[in-house]
Amino acid sequence: MKSSIIAINPSFPFLHFLPPSPLTALLFSPRKNPKSLHLCTNFSTTLLLFSLSLLFSITFLLGIFLLGFLRSYQNSPLPCSVSSSPEFFAASLSSMSSSSLLDKEEGVPRLSYSAMVPLPAHGLSGNLSEPEREFWQQPDGEGYRPCLDFSIGYRKASAEISKEKKRYLMVVASGGLNQQRNQIVDAVVIARILEASLVLPILQVNLIWGDESEFSDIFDVEHFKKTLQADVRVVSTIPSSHLMLRQPIHSKIPRDITPNWIHSRFFNQLNKDGLLILKGLDSKLTKNLPPDLQKLKCKVAFHALRFAAPIRELGEQLAKRMWIEGPYIALHLRLEKDVWVRTGCQTGLGPEFDRVIAKVRESEPEFLTGSLNMSHTQRKLAGLCPLNALEMARFLKALGAPKSTRIYNAGGEPFGGSRAMQPLISEYPNLVTKEMLARQGELARFANKSSALAAIDYIVCLSSDVFVPSHGGNMGRALQGHRAYVGHRKFIKPNKRAMLPFFEDTTISEAELSSVVKELHAKSLGQPELRNYRRERDVIAYPVPECLCQKP
User: Fold this and answer.
1) How many helices and strands in the chain, by DSSP H and E?
2) For FRET with 268, which of 134, 172, 344, 487 sits at 20 to 30 Å CA-CA?
3) Nearest to 402, CA basis, from 423, 377, 428, 426
4) Domains detected in the chain
């Protein structure tokens, strides 16, 4: 309900709820001329007083009933014993200072309406064992709420920056969906630093998947512009007056660049040329930005970068199909061929499959991102390899995940096909993918669109009760921060370096392994983690304390 406050007549509480009747007409009719009235008898006076008393009694009881109904309605459980809901998030954002909110009446979404919010987490009900109850228990958010209240200085500067029409920044974003999202976030921050208008970022064609999607294919352009209009002016195209035949593209950008470096390096040139083109921004901007710019990163990542309507609608439909059956786990299994090539790890499928990966790696060594001076075993024990299906099954079982749990797999096509997934499916048979959830024809428009398919996975994963990535990565970090931002939904990041030696120990029992695994992950289940504990942490993955504050 948008509002439970009802204006009432202070002189006659609850009376204007009543339908018109002879009695109400009598009570509120104009006073007649005394000459036309007969003398009132004691009986008529008594009758009138009795009627008034009865009316007030009925309306008072009706008011009590209405208030009780509204309260019970607001607190009533949702289907499937839901104990928490997105109301937590909306209420938190609505408490932001008015300076950080946009005017919805003018067609600009308020922050409390613009964020992508998951479906409610399921409550702990039914015949659950203690390990199962412990597994589904959501972490304590410790009172942290979204707080994107920008400083007075930031807001004053916004008046000029948001109307800038002389300086334009264009950015080329590369990589997969979540890698591109990170670069778009940084592009907005850089545009703000340079006091420039931002041209909608160009998504470079992905060489691995061949995806030629444009910004408007993946994200809601108008929503992006409107959400950021108080921070940076966003335009769809460069004005013809700023087009140059030989505009240089700056791609050799060092790592860990600061706002001062950006301003001193590019501002004068941008002032002169009117256009700056940057490429290769991935992980180049420093993680230690001023508080206002950290908040801007959160605003872009969690509010402005809303997926395009077709993606959003299908993603939400698939999430509801998972959610309606009860609590579910979302896994991001990194078992694709390119992952094994890049990490330099063995697949766990045997020598035949490992030889195929080694051959590709030798022919295309530029794809290898793992340490060249480490053996396969050393990489694995150092936590540099993704968990395979067998290891993920043992991990979930040790944590107490019920065998009947529904699991959504957000990974791509695994190298080795069904053989690669068999150990996990044997232990958890209720494993599904978007292809299995979607009805006939629903995914047809997204064929060969890897970014759109990854966005659909993102939406379903966001609404899961538990999310587990097998190998970190950009999607894992993005969901870690997003789930924290919308209420600290359970997020379990496997401590591979500490855990895998116990997996290799054949003498340890399942009960002992379960005890060890739970102890190793007791403090990493999605509860608030301060970003400033390790200064290299990105605010997008660790939004506390810049974007989430403790409020009573």
Assistant:
1) 22, 13
2) 172
3) 428
4) 152-303 (3.40.50), 309-335+386-550 (3.40.50.11350)
